[in-house]
Specification:
- This protein has a single domain, classed as Alpha-D-Glucose-1,6-Bisphosphate, Chain A, domain 4.
- The protein is built from 3 helices and 6 strands, in the order H-H-E-E-E-E-E-E-H.
- A 6-stranded antiparallel β-sheet has the order 1-2-3-4-5-6.
- With 136 residues, it is an alpha+beta fold.
């Protein structure tokens, strides 16, 4: 989860992410936010992965080191974006499940939309795996 939460490093390992900037974090002084204290609440991204090129902001909700979910706050091309990383310990290793659903504001045929989703999912999982295994 430390790699997932390190947004500043995304351009180094998440293909197509050119900018990942934390815009706000959860407040350590608020008891209702204590479990998420210091973690990103909203993150701005610039993404360039054909057929999707966009700038957007995501809102994050953290469940300790078990899960993080996100939803689109605003985007230029994206109309909706929801996803999650779900981590589960499995005998000395960590199993990662990645969920993603997106919709764009311009008409795209289903094949192009699925291709975009597949690229994003493959990029996220393969890039994350390489980053974690590199120890960076």
């Amino acid at each position: 989860m430390a790699v997932i939460a390190d947004f500043a490093a995304y351009p180094q390992w998440a293909k197509g992410v050119t900018v990942a900037e934390v815009r706000s974090t959860y407040d350590a002084g608020d008891p209702a936010q204590a479990a998420q204290a210091g973690r990103a609440r909203e993150v701005f991204f610039a993404l360039d992965v054909s057929p999707i090129k966009d700038e957007y902001t995501l809102a994050y909700v953290w469940d300790d080191d078990r899960q993080v979910t996100w939803t689109l706050v605003e985007g230029k091309m994206l109309k909706s974006l929801e996803g999650a990383y779900i981590l589960r310990e499995t005998g000395g290793a960590t199993e990662v499940t990645y969920r993603l659903a997106l919709d764009v504001s311009i008409p795209l045929i289903g094949m192009l939309k699925r291709k975009g989703e597949k690229i994003l999912i493959d990029t996220a999982l393969k890039g994350l795996k390489r980053r974690v295994e590199s120890g960076a």
